[in-house]
């Protein structure tokens, strides 16, 4: 269990990255309570109502994008409201003022943390609360019910996802940090479905896959996962 604040500003050159580490022990107070008895994991794919065509992220606002993707998810969205890149940048901009790092956006594309983005979403009124997951088991169990925003390292080899081969492997040199959304699970293959707003040229229209063991490697190396509630139904 984390006992002290951990921060790490991860360098990035690709504008699609930008996630940094801020792990606060107080986040344990916001751990989601999950049922003690876990049912077998099943295939699931969570639907979202994102803008069309899908936005293309070009600055380091991936943490803000993650908040908007969660906010567009079925059973979590506000009917008639679709959060787009403008709101993602707004969340990101506020998050840069909440993080313990130098610089804010605008004018500086500093990147931000998942924690700061979750706080920003609440302050901006597009979320009511956020909850955290501290074990891989809890992440997979929660993913059965709703998508999850995940922040972790991103390697150069992970950029290679294509329509024909959408599987990413966290091999090669670290390119930076990235926040993306776990949107589904394929139980038989033990594959997590990931998505980000990178346009149709990445993976299958922004959707890719990662094996559970590979995801665990990322999760255990300064990764974090949370869900932001927009609407109680």
Structure description:
The structure is a single chain. A hairpin with a 4-residue loop joins strand 7 and strand 8. Helix 1 crosses helix 2, helix 1 packs across helix 3 and helix 2 packs across helix 3. The model has no long low-confidence stretch (mean pLDDT 95). The chain has one domain: Cysteine proteinases (Cathepsin B, Chain A). Helices cover 21% and strands 23% of the residues. The protein starts with 5 loop residues before the first strand and ends with a strand. With 233 residues, the chain is α+β, with helices and mostly antiparallel strands. The longest helix is centred in the middle third of the chain and has 14 residues. It is built from five helices and ten strands; from the N terminus they run E-E-E-H-H-E-H-E-H-E-E-E-E-H-E.
Give me the secondary-structure topology:
Layout: E1 6-8, E2 19-23, E3 44-45, H1 62-71, H2 85-98, E4 112-113, H3 114-123, E5 129-133, H4 136-143, E6 148-155, E7 174-186, E8 191-195, E9 207-211, H5 212-219, E10 224-229
Parallel strand pairs: 2-4
Antiparallel strand pairs: 1-2, 3-7, 5-10, 6-7, 6-10, 7-8, 8-9
Helix pairs in contact: 1-2, 1-3, 2-3
Short description:
This protein is an alpha+beta fold and 233 residues long.
Radius of gyration, rounded?
A: 16 Å
Question: Given the structure, what is the number of helices?
Answer: 5
Helix content: 10-25%
Largest sheet: 7 strands, antiparallel
Report the principal-axis shape: globular
CATH class: Alpha Beta
Average of pLDDT = 95
| CATH 4th-level superfamily | Cysteine proteinases
Structural class: alpha+beta
Strand proportion: 15-25%
Strand tally is 10
**How many structural domains can be distinguished in the coordinates?**
1
Q: Would you list the SSEs in sequence order as H and E?
A: EEEHHEHEHEEEEHE
Instruction: Look up the CATH topology.
Output: Cathepsin B, Chain A
What distance separates the N and C termini? Answer: 32 Å
Low-confidence stretches: none
CATH architecture: Alpha-Beta Complex
């Amino acid at each position: 269990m984390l006992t002290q604040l951990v921060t790490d500003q991860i360098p990035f050159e690709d504008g699609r990255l930008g996630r940094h580490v801020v792990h606060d022990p107080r986040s344990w107070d916001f751990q989601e309570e999950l049922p003690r008895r876990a049912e077998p994991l099943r295939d699931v794919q969570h639907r979202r109502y994102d803008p069309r065509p899908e936005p293309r992220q070009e600055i380091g606002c991936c943490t803000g994008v993650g908040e908007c993707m969660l906010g567009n998810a079925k059973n979590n969205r506000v009917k008639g409201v679709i959060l787009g890149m403008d709101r993602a940048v707004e969340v990101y901009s506020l998050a840069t003022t909440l993080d313990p790092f130098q610089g804010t956006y605008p004018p500086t594309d500093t990147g931000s943390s998942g924690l700061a983005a979750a706080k920003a979403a609440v302050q901006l009124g597009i979320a009511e609360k956020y909850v955290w997951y501290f074990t891989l088991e809890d992440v997979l169990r929660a993913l059965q019910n709703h998508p999850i925003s995940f922040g972790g390292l991103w390697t150069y080899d992970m950029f290679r996802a294509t329509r024909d081969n959408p599987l990413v492997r966290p091999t090669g040199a670290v390119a930076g940090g990235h926040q993306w959304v776990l949107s589904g699970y394929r139980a038989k293959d033990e594959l997590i479905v990931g998505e980000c707003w990178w346009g149709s040229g990445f993976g299958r229209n922004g959707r890719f896959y990662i094996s559970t063991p590979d995801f665990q490697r990322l999760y255990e190396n300064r990764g974090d996962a949370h869900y932001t509630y927009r609407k109680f139904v």
